[in-house]
């Protein structure tokens, strides 16, 4: 058994699927299935319960998962340190990025970073902020952008955006002529939200419940432009950050300040406290902190 076998096992466990794991690893499903069988034969244990297409870790599988994660982390740390020693100013950077953040902040940042460090390659992995946090913890990504606050026992971070959410309504909506709107005035409205893997999904629901009502969610999406398009089609209302609202065609929707309460939206660059940082990651942190500035 070598380190690749442990990586295959971890990917199957994360995805609860041989097929999905094989796709992410760019190998065939028979290859990954054979590897897992060989591991089970070698250790004399069953690692997964197999129920049709769905699989789950056994008790032995859970033990293997914890140990395998530590071994893979250690191997990656050694590899990164040796790569830094042998290949100064080279490297590969895996960045987790929520879709609604990327287009607003990062094309120019990445372009300037590439000019400064042309030998560092960058892989962008777009997911909701919850998944970004989980991927930084698991080592799937080196660094990520998340909605603050995050668990300070797990992450180092710096803040670079501090804004609030605005209300989007159709121009014919009863509230469209107002200067501002209180959250509790939206109790009877149909909401268009981001999906559950986005931090804003839970935050908006939590704020609504604190205001005395549970929002009626009619649509969910991972794309802010689709959400604003649904509002423009008069299918519901939405709450989006100020930066995103600047990208929206104001002739199609009406954008209003939301008060009482103001719902904050703060972004931060996050990385794990207990993990070795490669040259590429260290330079990205330093470069972007200086370029974006630490706000909030």
UniProtKB/TrEMBL annotation:
Keyword list (alphabetical) reads: DNA-binding, Transcription, Transcription regulation
First and last residue of the signal peptide? none
Extract one GO cellular component term from the record.
cytosol
**Occurrences of domain HTH lysR-type (ranges):** 1-58
Matches recorded under InterPro entries: HTH-type_LysR_regulators, LysR_HTH_N, LysR_subst-bd, WH-like_DNA-bd_sf, WH_DNA-bd_sf
* Listed GO MF terms: DNA binding; DNA-binding transcription factor activity
The highest taxon in the source lineage is Bacteria
Can you tell me which family this protein belongs to? Belongs to the LysR transcriptional regulatory family.
NCBIfam families per UniProt: trans_act_CidR
Q: Which PANTHER family match?
A: HTH-TYPE TRANSCRIPTIONAL REGULATOR YBHD, NITROGEN ASSIMILATION TRANSCRIPTIONAL ACTIVATOR-RELATED
Q: What is this protein called?
A: LysR family transcriptional regulator
Q: Which organism is it from?
A: Paenibacillus glucanolyticus
């Amino acid at each position: 058994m070598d380190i690749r076998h442990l990586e295959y096992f971890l990917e199957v466990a994360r995805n609860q699927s041989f097929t999905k794991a094989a796709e992410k690893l760019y190998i065939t499903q028979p290859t990954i299935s054979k590897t897992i069988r060989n591991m089970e034969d070698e250790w004399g244990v069953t690692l997964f319960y197999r129920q049709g297409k769905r699989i789950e870790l056994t008790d032995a599988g859970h033990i293997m998962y914890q140990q395998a994660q530590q071994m893979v982390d250690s191997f990656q740390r050694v590899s990164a340190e040796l790569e830094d020693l042998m290949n100064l100013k080279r490297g590969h950077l895996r960045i987790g990025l929520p879709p609604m953040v990327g287009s607003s902040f990062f094309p120019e940042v990445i372009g300037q970073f590439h000019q400064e460090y042309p030998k560092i390659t960058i892989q962008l992995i777009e997911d909701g902020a919850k998944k970004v946090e989980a991927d930084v913890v698991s080592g799937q990504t080196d660094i990520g952008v998340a909605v603050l606050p995050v668990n300070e026992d797990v992450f180092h971070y710096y803040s670079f955006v501090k804004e609030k959410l605005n209300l989007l309504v159709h121009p014919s909506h009863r509230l469209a002529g107002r200067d501002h709107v209180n959250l509790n005035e939206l109790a009877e409205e149909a909401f268009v939200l981001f999906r559950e893997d986005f931090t804003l999904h839970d935050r908006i629901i939590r704020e609504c419940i604190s205001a005395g009502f549970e929002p009626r969610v009619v649509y969910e999406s991972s794309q802010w432009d689709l959400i604003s398009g649904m509002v423009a089609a008069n299918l519901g209302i939405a709450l989006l950050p100020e930066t995103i609202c600047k990208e929206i065609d104001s002739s199609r929707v009406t954008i209003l300040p939301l008060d009482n309460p103001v719902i904050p939206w703060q972004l931060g660059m996050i990385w794990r406290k207990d993990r070795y940082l490669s040259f590429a990651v260290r330079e990205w942190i330093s470069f972007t902190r200086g370029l974006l500035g630490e706000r909030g």
